[in-house]
Amino acid sequence: MFKLKLLAFKYWQKLKIANYWLWAQAVFILLALLRLLPAKAAIRFSAWVARKIGPLSSRHKVATRNLANAYPEKSPQEIEEIALEMWDSMARLLAEYVFLDAIFDFDPDAKEKGLIEVEGEEIFRRLLDEKKPHIFFTAHTGNFELLPICAATFGLNVTALFRPPNNPFIARKVLKARRTNMGHLVPSKAGAAWSLAAVLGQDDNVGMLVDQKFARGVPSTFFNLPVKTNPLLAKLARQYDCDVYPARCIRLPGGRYRLELSEAMELPRDANGQVDIAATAQLLNDTVEGWVREYPGQWMWFHKRWG
């Protein structure tokens, strides 16, 4: 019986890998076809396709359920409209991977605006002269991938923590692209905390996405619903006594983007004067929630944040 179970498990694993491979090839073919088009046309086409196909996927049900729970006051039609805008934004994000060099045209010394505008230039310039570590955090909103590229434009080196896709074939491709365009990366897995700690210990900078599900996280709330939040950022900020800066990307009309870097947050402290882990986790959630409420269609609602 044990041998039969072992054989069944191995067979299932092979089927799973084969399925990953097939999906990866489909994605790679799609990206290759997009490269045949001009950047703006390819991005618009991807968004159009996603608005048609997205609602047919199982993830659409996850998105609309999350939206209904987060916005109990909204009608089903309003929920559906936000979900469609989300598919539009997520498809643009996928296509933008292919055209990062064409999209990111920001020049701090340019007299005319391009596709990218930046708020907080003075903060970027000031941090470059500070000989101490910093932590930047953002969320899955807009094209968040542009943020570390922007930091590099000002000479800031940022090591980003990221969660690789579940598909190992796509994960390798994405990792290769991100290494090329976005500096140093630390995959979110065992040992990641030590890697980030080493970066901060060398007075360098770390970037983190803070809106992901973390089963072993700190109990907190998001849209007044219970969630678990990764305490890593708070723990690192407490250990290295470093400033924490919110950063986000907003999609603008006409295929443009605004990157915003805000001043350092005042982190809550406990009775001993140390960074309060639970309160800081909640502060991060509250900050991201504010961003999402402002532009709900630009956040990744199909992510099982509450599940």
UniProtKB/TrEMBL annotation:
The chain crosses the membrane at residues 20-37. It is an enzyme of class 2 (transferase). GO terms for cellular component: plasma membrane. GO terms for biological process: glycolipid biosynthetic process. InterPro entries: LipA_acyltrans (IPR004960). Coiled coil: none annotated. Its EC number is 2.3.1.241. It is found in: Cell inner membrane. GO terms for molecular function: Kdo2-lipid IVA acyltransferase activity. Keywords: Acyltransferase, Cell inner membrane, Cell membrane, Membrane, Transferase, Transmembrane, Transmembrane helix. This is KDO2-lipid IV(A) lauroyltransferase.
